[in-house]
Amino acid sequence: MNLTQLKYFTEVVKTMNMTKAATKLHVAQPSISRSIRELENELGVSLFIRQGKKLILTAQGNYFFTVVNRSFNQLRLAKENVKAIHSLNNKKITIKMCETTPLLVSFLKIIHNKYPQINLQFIQSKIDNDPRHYDFQLVPLPVPEQHNELLLSEEVFLATSKKNPQSTFQLEKINQLPLIEMNESPFADFIQRFLSAQRIDPQVVLRTGDRNLMINLVAQGYASCFVPELSWNCTTNLEKISLHRIGKNGFHRRIYLSYPYGPRTSIQEQVATLLLNYCHSLKKDIVSPS
């Protein structure tokens, strides 16, 4: 088994046609056929079922493609990372994330203050579909086949106006409250999954991406909203609202610092340590629930 055989195999799967695969790879069609046949002989299984000129991927072929394609993606990423890492004195750091977060303001400040020579760049995109080089990802769940460190674990509270004296809210009572939701985002998805799992269908009166607007409306008693205890506290004034634990034990969300396996530059290591230490210190400034 060699890389050429695997390359031919993945292209045939993508096109499901030997001739089209040969044309795209700029090789003769018999070479593709012979390579697939040799690969099947070595594996001892049929990767395709032939029905005339039509190809059907077998269960073994489908599994093999999944593994091989993942490996090729890792090789491509390794190539990009090698090109990006020129020396241990590389001064550029790129962070990729699904959405902007209030933590970015703090990240920019502490990195610039500690390492003013670093050129810090951010990529906002879907985590799985962007092949551009990055040094770190901010993600809500660990990324498979990467190194993942827990950056932040924070409780999510229900925010109401100061007039509400309750210290905790039972889950069923949330159904009775008018609620402001965040626009589509990983945090909004996280809240929605939690509510759905608890069979809670709140009365949503407004959706917005403006956190300060949400907090001001809550403070005025217009509605309630969900607030993460740490990350929003960086840029949003939470002192004018009350925060209430949800249920007896509350519920939490996590943010991970994820990055590819392999050698790291000294700058990458220093930035990772700086971000982890900063986020771990946020607990000291937590706004206590009512």
Layout of SSEs?
Layout: H1 3-15, H2 18-25, H3 29-43, E1 48-51, E2 54-57, H4 59-84, E3 92-97, H5 103-114, E4 119-124, E5 136-139, E6 147-160, E7 168-169, E8 178-182, H6 186-197, E9 203-208, H7 211-219, E10 225-228, E11 242-246, E12 251-259, H8 266-281
Parallel strand pairs: 3-4, 3-5, 7-11, 8-9
Antiparallel strand pairs: 1-2, 5-12, 6-10, 6-11, 6-12
Overview of the structural elements:
The protein is α/β, with parallel strands linked by helices. It has helices at 3-15, 18-25, 29-43, 59-84, 103-114, 186-197, 211-219, 266-281, and strands spanning 48-51, 54-57, 92-97, 119-124, 136-139, 147-160, 168-169, 178-182, 203-208, 225-228, 242-246, 251-259. Strands 3, 4, 5, 6, 7, 10, 11 and 12 form an eight-stranded mixed beta sheet that branches. A two-stranded antiparallel sheet has the order 1-2. α5 (103-114) links the parallel β3 (92-97) and β4. α1 crosses α2. It starts with a helix and ends in a 9-residue tail after the last helix. The mean pLDDT is 84.
